[in-house]
Amino acid sequence: MRIGGFLSSGEVAMSVFEGVRLLRRERWQKRKKLTRLEKTEARWGLTFLSPWMIGFLLFYLLPMLASFVFSLYEFNPAVPDQAKFIGFDKWYRALMVDEEVRLSFVRTIHFAAISLPISLGFALFLAILMNSEHVIGKNIYRTLFYMPTMIPLVASVLIWNGVLNEQTGWINIFIERLTGIQATGTEGIRWLANPQLVYYAYTMFGLWGVGNAMIIFLAGLQGVPTEIYEAAKIDGANYWQRLFRITIPLITPVIFYQLVLGVIGSLQYFLAPFVLNGGTGFPEGKTRFYMVYFYKQSFSFFNMGYGATLAWLMFIVALIITIILFGTARYWVYYAAEER
Fold it and tell me: Structural domains in the chain?
């Protein structure tokens, strides 16, 4: 659920944690004298890492610092010469005055609480199904499930706008024929216009593109040693016991990875409400998510200083959530190479 081609806040946070780990390893290595071969390997490693490091510095870190500076100014890109330093007034406005900031956060969290468990659960279900030895033609099904991720996101949203149409959408037609209730026509189920259903409709958009998550889950499932299953079968474990006591615990690192990126992607949810409603929040403001509000402030009202403040608030919230997830990982994520 990553938006655009930019590095997400979660990926930045994960990079920070990885950097801390590497620094600790480097300090430990400095305690012992490196051999000439190790010094040569270190220099080559830094040489190959340097393009990424330079790109991160020029295209991510420096722009982030510049955006923080913008948050301290009354800045309109249309009249940059009229920029005025106002300190942390924008931060005070966002945290204490602007009620829409809090409401948009609440909407975003509400949507994430609905969408994320369903999306991750569905992706894991498909991966388990595709990993089963009883499924014939698994390669074909894997390809079919992955193919929707190749469709541009805007096109996918427009496709689902037609699929969920209250009068002609085939989901309403299917529900009407299956249950007999009136689901089409003027009194049909209005998935995208009903405040109680719109989050579930947007979740369906996400289910269309779970191919990436399915592939990652599938890779984790195929990494579970088969001899553990064989030993469990000999001990009399049934399928569900093997699933919940062997499979799930051994792929918790993959689940953790998907959870972190999924949470951050949900916080940055933007495309569907913007394409369908132009950021108006229809219906009843339910789809005026935080990133939609950020976009309106930055690029509709050209209030770039306030937009930079909102972006930094999102980064801080995403970083805090990531830290919490990493802090709780020790209690439920199992790494075979580490002691618990």
Answer: 9-32+71-332 (1.10.3720.10)
